[in-house]
Design goal:
With 834 residues, this protein is an alpha/beta fold. The radius of gyration is 26 Å and the shape is globular. 57% of the residues are buried.
């Protein structure tokens, strides 16, 4: 893109000098390490001697490999490789000199576990290296009833059983909400949870490093992939029934799957994706398809009723859409401000005009394929110049880190959180931006959320009370779930007084973060130069949907749009059906990448010689998602292979699916999920299902044999009959647990409150809200050894709750001055018009 071509030489990497030891294989841990490496850290990857990281031999499409697989080369560029066991003297020496140690992150499936450390070994690693930040990424965390050895029958999943992402999706509330109500619930394609866990771990790890450099003592970050996925892939919807008095924990209820209509529809030459989450967007969509006669149809205005008439409605949509090309539809819809995008496929995503104009895809340094670039920039820094992924053990005899300084002895006083003393001005709304600032607040930052009097955060009005109820704008369920740990001020930025106050607030803040469309901030007089003038030390982080330039610069973008454009939707759905959006995870994924980029900029500002000058950060939402969807791109550009959705099946386990327990007395929508992740589990599953004939079939003895479509169809039919005959799901799960077959209940969000692992780890924290009352709220996906207690210090704020204390204590305004601002509509105690 033009501004980058005109930029001066790239500055020094912000994380230059940071030493990261990566004791992790597969995907989540290496993606965490990649984020550190791209920001300039020296990342040394420790691999099992012999074969190394199993991902070296991996191709999701099964393409024959001549050397290391493309996904491995994407994840491990710019790292160094040491072939050694984790407890070897060489690795212990590297750990003693490391600033950050990343452990775990490998899930089961296809013999891809690699080496790993159990909970006791991770804790010993932390104890032996007290100056280092140890980041543990594990399926369930280091403590709780689902970790360690042994398990009671019926506990799901038993603590000594392998688990893969498919089962974690079933457990976290994601799968139960996806698919058609009269069909099996569906996984989200693309292993989104593992990618998300990697970037979540990177954010917390870099924040913990900031704390370690402040006081000289490292920390242990205990990240649970299940908790991360619960936050990002469906579990936050538990807030609705919790505060509204809906179904209680453990209740399955009736099918809750209602697919978005419209979403992805055929065109004259392909597919196009829409997002109509607001009433105005849906009305504009009816105008777009030349059906204004439907504007008065009240049934169609409601998604559930629209779905009941889906055949009729989709016939009208397709009659129009198939008469137009994708480009024509995108141009027409964008003109009406309807979120729209061509649907990315393996062969098209790298050719989309906006991505090519911005130079989003770059050559892998090893050659042979294209990959998405680093999804942010910090001033002129676009990620370090890439170096090809190392050969196995290439640096075993050459890596040498000088020992770091001795750790400072911790005193008796309570230790501060890693981001204590940092102040963030939060100008974000909806989910992506608020998820970033909530995490920063959970790590200790003082987050001041700014809401306009005439344009408050739109999430206040989603999923809560009707406008006939008192204070109905305080009941937005997603707002409550994504804005804990913040103070809130009202501020009408469309006024000159409001803009002047904003500049004064910037003067007191380390970070300003916003996710307006690109035109808004300059129109408010708060562009980069204005922020720099108000406070030269402030980091300004902008989160545009598609970037600050390029053909799509001014288009509206939501998570659904990102899922459609990136290819994640292409990987989700049944083999013979249309692509299905994964539903929402792209918002927090973008937020996490923005939070990481912000911490990278702060590290550069505060390091010796950094000058204390803040940076400008552009963290583009869609480019974050393209990094998470990278496997689709690299497989096609490296091997010409087109990954494709395949229902609940996948390359890492077979059989793998969801099976209806139709006799369960809990209700009509009770399903169990199972995944055979290695060949030894297969005959045990056959014994449980009472099908010795399947176990005796040599064609089914291997993963490859069971994955073949006719074979998997045959196995699925047998498992469906077995599950349908069970008296209840618990009986089936107990039998599978006894046999050591990985399985899990397909869990609706309302049942998450009863999950024994989440309960034991205190994932849900009780918060007392002044309007909504006291309720359990989803917390964060990690624990810190230095702060084992709750990390939600305050509930989501009511509108303008902290006006007096912030404007008085931070800016020195008097009570009459504050009241005058209220009288002139610059401040308010409620949104305008309610």
């Amino acid at each position: 893109m033009a501004p980058d071509r005109a930029a001066p030489a790239q500055p020094a990497a912000p994380l230059a000098g940071v030493r990261v030891l990566e004791l992790s294989t597969q995907l989540a841990g290496p993606y965490c390490g990649k984020l550190f490496a791209d920001a300039g850290a020296d990342v040394v990857k420790v691999e099992p001697p012999g074969a190394g990281d199993p991902l070296r031999a991996w191709s999701a499409s099964g393409a024959p490999l001549d050397g290391d697989g493309a996904l491995f080369r994407y994840l491990n560029a710019s790292k160094r490789s040491v072939a050694a066991e984790p407890d070897s003297p060489r690795v212990r020496g590297l750990a003693a000199a490391a600033d950050v140690v990343i452990t775990g992150g490998a899930l089961a499936g296809g013999n891809h576990a690699g080496h790993g450390l159990d909970a006791a070994a991770v804790r010993r690693l932390h104890a032996d290296n007290p100056r280092a930040v140890v980041v543990s990424i594990s399926p369930f965390g280091l403590a709780g009833p689902w970790t360690g050895a042994g398990a009671a029958h019926g506990s799901q999943p038993p603590r000594d059983r392998a688990v893969n992402e498919f089962l974690l999706q079933a457990l976290c509330g994601s799968t139960a909400a996806r698919g058609e109500p009269d069909a099996a619930p569906l996984q989200a394609g693309g292993r989104i949870g593992e990618w998300a866990a990697g970037v979540y771990a990177a954010v917390v790890g870099l924040a913990a490093l900031r704390g370690a450099r402040r006081d000289g003592v490292g920390d242990l970050v205990d990240l649970s992939i299940l908790e991360c996925m619960t936050i990002m892939m469906g579990g936050l919807s538990v807030v609705g029934p919790t505060i509204m008095g809906g179904p209680g924990p453990g209740v399955s209820g009736s099918p809750g799957r209602v697919p978005e209509i419209p979403s992805i529809v055929p065109t004259k030459d392909g597919l196009v994706g829409f997002c109509t989450i607001t009433a105005q967007q849906f009305q504009d969509f009816l105008v777009l398809i030349e059906r204004p006669d439907l504007l008065g149809d009240r049934d169609l205005a409601l998604l559930a009723r629209r779905h009941a008439r889906r055949d009729e409605f989709l016939a009208a949509v397709h009659s129009w859409s198939t008469r137009h090309t994708t480009d024509e539809i995108v141009e027409l819809a964008a003109g009406l401000r309807i979120p729209v995008t061509p649907v990315g496929t393996p062969s098209t995503v790298t050719t989309i005009d906006h991505f090519t104009a911005r130079g989003v895809f770059v050559p892998n340094p090893s050659g042979g394929f294209a990959q998405p670039r680093t999804p942010y920039r910090v001033d002129g820094f676009r990620g370090r110049p890439l170096v090809g992924a190392p050969a196995l053990g290439e640096h075993t005899d050459t890596v040498a880190w000088e020992p770091g300084p001795a750790p400072v002895q911790a005193g008796a006083a309570a230790r501060e959180l890693p981001l204590d003393g940092l102040r963030v001005l939060d100008l974000t709304a909806f989910w992506a931006g608020p998820s970033a600032t909530m995490l920063l607040g959970s790590l200790g930052a003082d987050v001041i959320k700014v809401e306009g009097v005439t344009r408050p955060d739109g999430l206040r009005f989603a999923g809560g009370k009707p406008p006939t109820e008192p204070s109905w704008w305080e009941w937005g369920t997603m707002f409550l779930a994504t804005n804990a740990n913040k103070r809130a001020v009202s501020l009408e930025l469309s006024t000159r007084e409001g803009q002047d106050l904003a500049q004064r607030l910037i003067g007191a803040c380390d970070v300003v973060i916003e996710n307006f469309t690109p035109r808004v901030l300059p129109n408010l007089g708060l562009d980069r130069d204005a922020v720099r003038a108000a406070n030269p030390a402030t980091v300004l982080t902008r989160m545009p949907a598609f970037g600050l330039d390029g053909p799509w610069r001014d288009r509206t973008g939501f998570a659904q749009t990102m899922e459609q454009a990136s290819g994640l939707a292409w990987l989700t759905g049944t083999r013979d059906g249309p692509p299905v959006i994964p539903r929402g995870a792209c918002d927090p994924i973008a937020g996490l990448h923005a939070a990481f980029a912000t911490l990278v900029a702060l590290t550069a500002r505060d390091r010796p010689g950094g000058g204390g000058v803040g940076a400008f950060v552009e963290a583009t939402m869609v480019e974050s998602v393209l990094n998470v969807a990278a496997e689709l791109t690299v497989e096609h550009s490296a091997y010409g292979a087109s990954l494709h959705r395949d229902g609940n099946r996948g390359p890492l386990a077979a059989p793998q699916g969801t099976y209806h327990c139709s006799r369960d007395p809990a209700g009509p929508d009770v399903w169990l999920a199972l995944a055979v992740t290695d060949d030894a589990q297969w005959p045990r599953l056959c014994a449980v299902a009472g099908r010795p004939d399947l176990a005796a079939d040599p064609g089914l003895a291997t993963l490859a044999g069971r994955r073949a479509t006719p074979a998997h169809d045959r196995v699925d039919a047998a498992l469906a009959a077995w599950a349908a005959a069970l008296p209840d799901r618990a009986t089936g799960l107990a039998a599978l647990a006894e046999a050591g077959v990985p399985a899990a209940p397909v869990t609706p969000a309302a049942a998450l409150l009863a999950n024994p692992q989440l309960v034991a780890r205190g994932f849900f924290e009780r918060l007392a809200h002044p309007v909504v009352g006291e309720h359990p709220m989803p917390g964060v996906a990690f624990r810190l050894a230095s702060h084992p207690g709750p990390l939600l210090r305050r509930p989501a704020p009511v509108f303008g709750q902290h006006d007096d204390e912030v404007y008085r204590d931070l800016l020195g305004l008097t009570h009459p001055e504050i009241e005058g601002l209220r009288a002139r509509g610059v401040l308010a105690d409620r949104p305008a018009g309610v």
